[in-house]
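In response to the reviewer comment on reproducibility (Comment 2.3), we provide here a single inverse folding case reported in full, input and output, so that an independent group could reproduce the run without further information from us. The structure tokens appear first.
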């Protein structure tokens, strides 16, 4: 049952993801199985290659602790940090929500993925980004560029290209609509494909500047 629920966190439909996260949260709130479920969830989280999926795995924990802080001792979450980049803005904000970090400071500015000066954004990225992710992602990226001197979209595209090569290394059939949760291929409105998760993970990584 747990493996099935965890797999639903990778499902293309956001509604299925939400229901799976709620179900896991309810199990975490059950004192009889809470510690076992938390251990299995953290093990599953450890094996996920994309930061967007690792972040999704934290949502049941956040929800459970919002309802009952005592059910999941904060000490049991100390080991989570090693599964995330030390400068992850999103993860640090979630730690604050969990009450693990009372210090609301911005993580150190370390960016390992700055594109080379001669890098040009792939045409396919510009043509498909608003299809794979809600347009709000690109709109926020444009706002960042207008308010700072950081070429956010160029860096975002560069990180996405690196993740794409890493994730598809050795694969002959590079179907970007391949679902992380199942192998159905037809495009569905509101779905989250593997390429969606790559673009989302690149976006989250790009925030660490």
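Designed residues, in position order:
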């Amino acid at each position: 049952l747990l493996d099935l629920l965890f797999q639903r966190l990778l499902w293309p439909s956001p509604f299925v993801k939400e229901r799976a996260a709620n179900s896991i949260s309810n199990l975490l709130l059950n004192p009889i199985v809470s510690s076992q479920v938390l251990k299995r969830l953290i093990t599953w989280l450890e094996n996920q290659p994309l930061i967007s999926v690792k972040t999704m795995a934290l949502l049941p924990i956040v929800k459970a602790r919002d309802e009952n802080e005592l059910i999941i001792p904060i000490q049991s979450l100390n080991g989570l940090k090693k599964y995330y980049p030390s400068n992850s803005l999103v993860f640090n904000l979630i730690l604050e929500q969990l009450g693990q970090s009372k210090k609301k400071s911005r993580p150190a500015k370390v960016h390992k993925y700055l594109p080379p000066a001669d890098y040009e954004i792939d045409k396919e990225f510009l043509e498909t980004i608003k299809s794979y992710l809600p347009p709000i992602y690109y709109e926020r990226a444009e706002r960042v560029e207008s308010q700072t001197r950081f070429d956010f979209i160029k860096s975002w595209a560069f990180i996405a290209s690196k993740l794409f090569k890493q994730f598809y290394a050795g694969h002959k059939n590079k179907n970007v609509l391949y679902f992380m949760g199942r192998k159905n291929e037809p495009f569905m409105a509101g779905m989250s494909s593997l390429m969606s998760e790559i673009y989302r993970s690149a976006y989250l990584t790009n925030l660490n500047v």
